[in-house]
Amino acid sequence: MIWKKDNLRLGMVLGVIGPLLGLLLIWQWKLNQASFVDFLEQFLSNNRLITSIGSLSLLANAVLFTIYINTERDETAKGIFISTVVYGIAILILKLFN
């Protein structure tokens, strides 16, 4: 099964998908009265939302990272960590230039 593999590339893919799913969950849970496009426009234009929603969406990667570290699949965990760092830097850049 693919989830059992210990692979850097798998970790990077999971690390990219995790925050996107986190973002969808936040939209569904809190702001689903607005369309997803409107939600993204608000998210990308408001510095407070960039920080709070960006951080919350990265929690999905924290969960994935913990699971893969605890099951000793370190290469996959390394890929998740790399993706998380890239997302974090992107959030900081977005916040700085917004």
3D structure, described in words:
This protein is an all-alpha fold. It has one domain. The protein contains four helices and no strands. It has helices at 8-30, 36-45, 47-70, 74-96. Helix 1 (8-30) crosses helix 3 (47-70), helix 1 crosses helix 4 (74-96) and helix 2 packs across helix 3 (47-70). It is elongated. The protein starts with 7 loop residues before the first helix and ends with a helix.
- The average pLDDT value, as a whole number, equals 88
The count of strands amounts to 0
Helix and strand element order: HHHH
User: What percentage of residues falls in helices of 4 or more residues?
Assistant: over 70%
Tally of contiguous helical segments: 4
CA-to-CA gap between the ends? 42 Å
Strand count, sense and barrel status of the largest sheet are:
none
Low-confidence residue ranges: none
Query: Which percent range describes the beta-strand content?
Result: under 5%
Number of domains: 1
Structural class: mainly alpha
Taking all Cα atoms into account, the compactness measure Rg is 14 Å
- What sort of overall outline do the alpha carbons produce when their principal axes are compared? elongated
